[in-house]
Design brief:
The complex is a heterodimer.
Chain A: H1 5-13, E1 18-25, E2 31-36, H2 42-62, E3 71-75, E4 78-85, E5 88-95, H3 100-114
Helix pairs in contact in A: 1-3
Chain B: E1 2-4, H1 10-20, E2 24-28, E3 34-38, H2 43-68, E4 74-78, E5 83-91, E6 94-102, H3 108-123, H4 140-151
Antiparallel strand pairs in B: 1-3, 2-3, 2-6, 4-5, 5-6
Helix pairs in contact in B: 1-3
Classes of the chains: A alpha+beta, B alpha+beta.
């Protein structure tokens, strides 16, 4: 089934406080598709976020906790959220005023549509 | 273990290897002359890899010119377990090539990210680079053998760094 990725990614960016969203190949750490604000270092962020998600996934598996369903990184000025499936990672960058619960729900729904 | 034939590449190459967590790294001139290496244990392997990398670079540069009007900037090959990345960086001594091999401990994105830092660092070494005579065809083999001997500690001027991990 053919999926148009861009509208799904763009829809996430329309959430309040979200400044960028990316679909990243977990193994290679390169961008599949992204919607980012001007000035963001997309390739660098994608590589580091994919590495972070991969290490979190391996840590959870090593601890016997199964797969990572959702990863939230709290920084001083915002959040990095990631969810992955089938070697793809959906990553969202949000500022401190973002509704993380809503973003989480939208990301998991988007991921289901992306990896079908 | 990192070893270098020219001291000005030592710090940037070590930082790249540490950050990107690559298995092998080989810094050469496009002619195949070796500047530094990490991960290789035998001179013959370095010599082979340098010659092959120079050949690959020459090939893809011409392929890029034919297809796109300009040479391809980098090459990536994904093997079953290991991946190879070959890219060019400008230095005060002219262009050089980085051939690197990595496994699941790293990724293409990370290697590209830290290669950009290496490229910047090599490009900013202008004041530290000593003058050197241009390499001529007739002394290529002598220079290559001298550099390999330096890399593997068989000549004066050996510069080794303790193992990184």
């Amino acid at each position: 089934m053919k999926i148009n990725i861009t509208p799904i990614i763009s829809a996430l960016t329309r959430q309040r406080g979200v400044s960028g969203s990316l679909l990243v190949d977990e193994t290679d750490g390169v961008i599949i598709d992204a919607t980012l604000q001007v000035g963001m270092k997309g390739p660098a962020f994608a590589a580091l976020a994919a590495s972070l998600y991969r290490k979190a996934r391996l840590s959870a598996q090593a601890a016997g906790l199964g797969d990572v369903t959702f990863l939230r990184l709290r920084a001083t000025e915002g959040y990095v959220c990631a969810a992955g499936k089938n070697e793809m990672v959906l990553v969202t960058i949000a500022d401190a005023r973002a509704n993380i619960g809503l973003i989480r729900m939208e990301m998991l729904k988007a991921l289901e549509r992306l990896v079908l | 273990m990192i070893s270098v034939a020219e001291p000005w590449v030592e710090a940037p190459l070590k930082r790249f290897v540490d950050d990107a967590r690559v298995t092998f790294a080989l810094l050469i001139y496009p002619s195949g002359q070796v500047l530094g290496q990490s991960g290789f244990s035998r001179a013959v392997d370095v010599m082979s890899a340098a010659a092959l990398a120079a050949g690959i670079h020459a090939t893809v540069r011409e392929l890029g010119r034919t297809l796109d009007g300009k040479g391809f900037r980098d090459v990536f090959h994904a093997g079953a377990k290991r991946k190879l990345y070959l890219a060019e960086a400008a230095t005060p001594r002219g262009p050089c090539l980085l051939l690197t091999v990595f496994d699941e401990q790293s990724s293409l994105g990370l290697v590209q990210l830290y290669f950009e830092e290496l490229r910047t660092a090599l490009g900013q070494t202008k004041m530290q680079v000593p003058d050197a005579a241009p390499m001529l065809d007739e002394n290529f083999e002598v220079e290559l053998n001298r550099n390999l001997a330096m890399l593997f500690g068989r000549a004066p001027g050996r510069r080794n760094i303790t193992p990184t991990s």
